[in-house]
Amino acid sequence: MKKRHQASGIRRQATCPTPSIRWILLTLLAGALCATMFAPHVPAAAADQAKPRPQGDSRRGESAGAVAGAARAKARAVAEYGYRIVNRYPHDRTAFTQGLEYREGVLYEGTGLNGRSTLRKVKLETGEVLQQVKLGNAFFGEGITVLPHQIVQLTWQAGMGFVYDRDTLRTSRTFNYPGEGWGLTNDGRRVYMSDGTAQLRRWDPATLQEQQRITVRDGSKEIASLNELEWVKGEIYANVWQTERIARISPEDGRVVGWINLTGLLDEAERPQVDVLNGIAYDAAKDRLFVTGKLWPTLFEIQLVPVRSH
After folding, report:
1. Cα–Cα distance between 292 and 112 in angstroms, integer?
2. Can you give the pTM of this predicted structure?
3. Integer Cα distance of 134 and 219 in angstroms
4. Which residues of 132-164 are buried (b: 16+ CB within 10 A; e: fewer)?
5. How high does pLDDT run on average in the chain?
6. In sequence order, which residues have a C-beta less than 8 Å from that of residue 28 and are 6 or more positions away?
7. pLDDT for res 27
8. What is the per-residue pLDDT across 120-154, written as a single tens digit (0 to 9) for each?
9. How far apart are CA 118 and CA 81, in angstroms?
10. Taking a C-beta distance cutoff of 8 angstroms, is the pair 257, 127 a contact?
């Protein structure tokens, strides 16, 4: 019974304290009230952030983030296309095609190799060379683009380009640029040039001076070896050297918005005598797309067939 009596005595003392004890209790109470009144304020949100999160909540957050990331990746998925052959046209088997454009019923072609480089006008239906000019033996011809009254042609490693009169194909002037020359196209306001890297250069069409560069990427991956170029419905189509694919590129930011897979376009029996796929031309008036390659015997008119949409 001893423990019970001691406990009872303590409780009684708490209810009837002595004066000295009351003074101590009042002092403690006053201190507690001051601490409460002047304590720093912690916002509820900050306090909540300071709390350790249960492991289950963390896993749910990671799962939600993964789902959101997958949704964003799906939204950015690049469209893919196959092809259907619409027509076949004869193509000069000695033409090492480096540039190709179609304007007002005429196929314009720039060819390469030292001692064999040319700029020519070709009749689409027969492959007949209607008019041509040869480059000097020191020059390896590259991409071309057709402007209202002129044709511009690059050379590979000479750092020099040629400007021709569109009607006569006479050289009107030359110009220089740094690095290698690969492909050319224009949108009527700007000229776009490829140099074998993942970059496209924007030029002023009057001065042919560089204004800006954009880097071509598929997602985060840079797409190098961009070769022959063509402007098609607000996009830049680009051959990728030593592949059978064409990249469809946004000219604003260099983003790849689609891939065209041309595997199997040329018969296997003809492959030992040819070089790579290179050469894209677009007939805007009739919405026709043409492709060929270096030393290919055929120029193809194709229609794109969606394989996977955006």
Report:
1. 14
2. 0.76
3. 41
4. ebebeeebbbbbbbbeeebbbbbbbebeebbbb
5. 84
6. none
7. 52
8. 999 999 999 999 999 999 999 999 999 999 999 99
9. 32
10. no
- Contact of 262 with 291, CB cutoff 8 Å: yes
The three-state secondary structure class of 206 is coil
Tokens of 101: 């454009």
Q: What pLDDT does 308 receive? A: 75
Strand 79-90 with 256-261, pairing: parallel
Measured CA to CA, the distance from residue 86 to residue 301 in angstroms comes to 5
Q: What is the DSSP letter of 127?
A: -
Q: Which residues contact 147 (CB under 8 A, 6 or more apart)?
A: 166, 186, 205
The backbone torsions φ and ψ at residue 181, rounded to the nearest 5 degrees and listed phi first, read: -110, 130
CB 102 within 8 Å of CB 282:
yes
Ranges of each domain in the chain: 79-308
Question: What distance in Å separates the CA atoms of residue 35 and residue 170, rounded to the nearest whole number?
Answer: 94
Rounded to whole angstroms, how far apart are CA atoms 299 and 159?
29
Nearest to 184 by CA among 163, 168, 200, 171: 200
Q: How far apart are CA 192 and CA 198, in angstroms?
A: 13
| Distance between CA atoms of residues 287 and 301, nearest Å | 11
Q: Which residue has the tokens 């304007």?
A: 103
Secondary structure of residue 14 in the 3-state scheme: helix
What does the chain come to in residues?
A: 310
The CATH code for residues 79-308 is: 2.130.10.10
Nearest residue to 283 via CA among 127, 101, 111, 129: 101
CA distances (Å), 253 to each of 13, 80, 134, 236, in order? 84, 19, 36, 11
